[in-house]
Amino acid sequence: MLIQMTPKQRRKANALIRKSCCNYDRGNCIALDDGEPCVCVQSISYSLCCTWFRDWVLPGAPALYAEITKPKGLKRCAECGSPFLAKSNRAKYCSDCARKVHRRQKTASDRKRRSNTDKQSFQKPDIYSVSSPAIMEVNSNTPHRSETTF
């Protein structure tokens, strides 16, 4: 079964063929040439039919390769929307955006941490002070040392 491309993917593939395929010569395919010029089959088709293109040219554009072949783990970047091959199930961003987002999150975290330290007082809580009425009542009912009988 041949893999089908969308019109947008086909336009990108044709641009890649014209730019990178060594068998492409002004609309003709040198590999299929047997004396008469033969039109490049991949440039006129919506399916992925040229093995040379699939094996050698398409991997040169990783985003397009991932988009067309749709391997397991293909996700869209939450930041820029481009497809990328996820290395884990937690991946949310492509490698370019991941650095930017991580830096932005780290900056925000550091800023928050710094602003919280200014608001906190560094005094230890007084755990021996009696502030609850129930504790005061218990303390008043206990006999003092001088009142105890032996």
Walk me through this protein's architecture.
This protein is mainly alpha-helical and 150 residues long. The chain is 45% helix and 7% strand. It has six helices and four strands, in the order H-E-E-H-H-H-E-E-H-H. It has helices at residues 7-20, 41-44, 51-57, 62-69, 95-119, 133-141, and strands at 24-25, 28-29, 74-76, 83-85. The chain has a two-stranded antiparallel sheet. Strands 3-4 form a two-stranded antiparallel sheet. Strand 1 (24-25) and strand 2 form a beta hairpin. It is rod-shaped and about 115 Å long. It starts with 6 loop residues before the first helix and ends in a 9-residue tail after the last helix. The model has no long low-confidence stretch (mean pLDDT 81).
Give a short summary of the structure.
The protein has 6 helices and 4 strands; from the N terminus they run H-E-E-H-H-H-E-E-H-H. By secondary structure, it is mainly alpha-helical.
